[in-house]
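User: Just a sanity check before I run the rest of the batch. Below are the structure tokens for the first item. I only need the designed sequence back.
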């Protein structure tokens, strides 16, 4: 993060005092590295997403390629991660049968989001793969399609009817209830899933860059007693780095959990 912040911090202008320049949203739109101007354009953020995906594949391949009855430390760690999703998300909300059916997609979502979130605090990467709208949006669409699929598979004829026209509501009230259900169930859900993940990772990155950029500014540009402020901003930077790890895990958990909740609502008996 400190290395990256060097491009954002203060600089001397001719005949003026040092000027501090904080982070901006342009950080999330780095210049192209390969195939500029094509649909296959690759920039620094794209490479980070590739690295996170490769890391997930390699870790689970190494952890499961030679399964043993008495697992080693690495296999145990991988199994703990898989069991966390299976027990605390899939089976807890969907039951054993439906939990097993939708476990692959929930597990993929959780670990994909987790690894892409964590790249935001990895030195020399310093940018979460989920901090641009494309990744959260694609995941939200997958969650939405899975929700629709689960509902139609459970009750092909009554899924949309029961979703838009809840039982027990007087017919005249449907004039109000049905539009609300349509917007909240079929429009708001994918939007909130996307924005919740996106905004958390964007804000976390901007805060970290701000603190570490301020540290360099006070330490190298201002000097003197301003060094005390550099120590303070550095301490806040490290504190928020720990907090960002918590947010990375929490956002992966919340996204997978809400997906499971939506699936549970789709396969509920009233549908």
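Assistant: Here's the designed sequence for the first item:
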């Amino acid at each position: 993060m400190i290395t990256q912040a060097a491009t954002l911090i203060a600089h001397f202008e001719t005949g003026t005092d040092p000027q501090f320049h904080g982070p901006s949203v342009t950080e999330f739109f780095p210049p192209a590295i390969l195939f500029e101007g094509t649909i296959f354009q690759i920039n620094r953020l794209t490479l980070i997403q590739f690295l996170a995906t490769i890391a997930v594949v390699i870790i689970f391949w190494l952890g499961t390629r030679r399964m043993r009855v008495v697992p080693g430390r690495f296999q145990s760690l991988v199994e703990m991660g898989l069991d966390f999703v299976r027990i605390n998300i899939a089976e807890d909300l969907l039951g054993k049968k439906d939990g097993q059916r939708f476990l692959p997609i929930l597990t993929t979502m959780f670990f994909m989001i987790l690894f892409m979130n964590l790249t935001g605090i990895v030195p020399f990467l310093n940018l979460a793969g989920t901090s641009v709208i494309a990744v959260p949006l694609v995941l939200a669409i997958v969650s939405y399609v899975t929700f629709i699929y689960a509902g139609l598979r459970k009750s092909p004829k009554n899924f949309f009817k029961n979703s838009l026209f809840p039982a027990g509501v007087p017919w005249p009230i449907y004039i109000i209830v049905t539009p609300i259900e349509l917007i909240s169930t079929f429009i708001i859900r994918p939007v909130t899933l996307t924005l919740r993940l996106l905004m958390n990772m964007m804000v976390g990155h901007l805060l970290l860059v701000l603190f570490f950029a301020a540290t360099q500014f006070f330490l190298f540009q201002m000097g003197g007693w301003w060094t005390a402020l550099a120590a303070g901003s550095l301490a806040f930077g490290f504190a928020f780095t720990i907090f960002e790890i918590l947010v990375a895990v929490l956002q992966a958990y919340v996204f997978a959990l809400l997906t499971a909740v939506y699936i549970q609502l789709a396969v509920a008996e009233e549908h």
